[in-house]
Please model this.
Amino acid sequence: MSLIVQKFGGSSVADAEKLFNVAGRITDTYKEGNSVVVVVSAQGDTTDDLIEKAAEINENASKREMDMLLSTGEQITISLLAMAIEKLGYPVISLTGWQVGMKTDSHYSEARIHKVDAERIRMELDKKRIVIVAGFQGINKYDDITTLGRGGSDTTAVALAAALKADLCEIYTDVDGVYTADPRIVKDARKLEEVSYDEMLELASLGANVLHNRSVEMAKKYNVNMSVRSSFSKVEGTKVMEVVKMEKMLVKGVARDNDVARIALVGLVDTPGIAFKVFSVLAKGNINVDIILQSIGRDNTKDISFTVAEKHLEKALEILNDNKEAIGFAEIKHTDNVSKVSIVGSGMVNNPGVAATMFEALFEAGINIKMISTSEIKVSVLIDEKDSERAVSVIHDKFFKNM
Ligand code: ASP
Ligand code: MG
Model:
């Protein structure tokens, strides 16, 4: 007998038939004698539809009101799913983020979880009920509703698993696990049996859209046993855990992120403190900077280029232009027609030549690299967006074809 947290994403609960499919999976687990806590997302495209609805009224709606609106999507799902389980004849109760004590900070639309009370859930589990919790939402110290950022229901599930010391946190989705590359791009991408928290965290942050990266961060911190699997089949999914079997796979996956823009500051004076000025004004504006490259320019000047998320491009340009005098650059250039393609794997720490192999694949395909960045367990390159799918394919071939 275990305590299991199961999370079902929007595509798994999109209509009545799918809700009953999910209800069946849940009650099967319950019948085996387990305590079951379920977290669900909004149905299908509900969240996107709500965002569109808001834009019809006010393009600049406050984030507080956006959270008030978006949190309703999940509330629909929890009640409908509870009704489906009632109909199957099992004891069940649905609860909102507020009712389960999901306490967050006040960063509306991107709130972080501070603490989970979970008292109410324990009480309901003691009564042998299946507990259905609304994902993605929490409550701040003003008793206002917050949301955890797009895809945040994964994080709700892991936070509950950690607070309840659950034996397992299963993330059910429309794919049957974590793959070596996006199967829509690479036909022979393979499903991974296991992936470490660190690798998964990199993959999630570098554009693999399987898990909310905060959920992986939290799973690592509280050592939550996590698995990613399909709502529509019984096949084993991918386990996300601390240590994974030593295997010959140097690289675990190839990820792509198109949500990248590049900014270049040209003709900066070559004196100490310039990089400090550039990146501190950006930091004050809450702009996250990713890959940074400094190079020598003409006549004792230097150039600094860096990448930001596409949605931050305009604000970053505005901040830099506002500080043009103070920073002292000649020209500013930018483009959003770039993509970041990355390889991830803890095996590369002790194995030279992994980056070279990646660059060789790109060279053979005639794809030009604009920027490079590396860490212990990843290598990322910035390339033209139009080359990005081809890049993922040739890199994947290079590492996985003869395995
Ligand atoms: N419904 C929210 C979204 O679409 C949260 C989630 O699905 O995890 O982003
Ligand atoms: Mg998701």
In short: Residues 10, 41-42, 47, 73, 135-136, 150-153 surround aspartic acid (ligand 1) (CB under 6 Å).
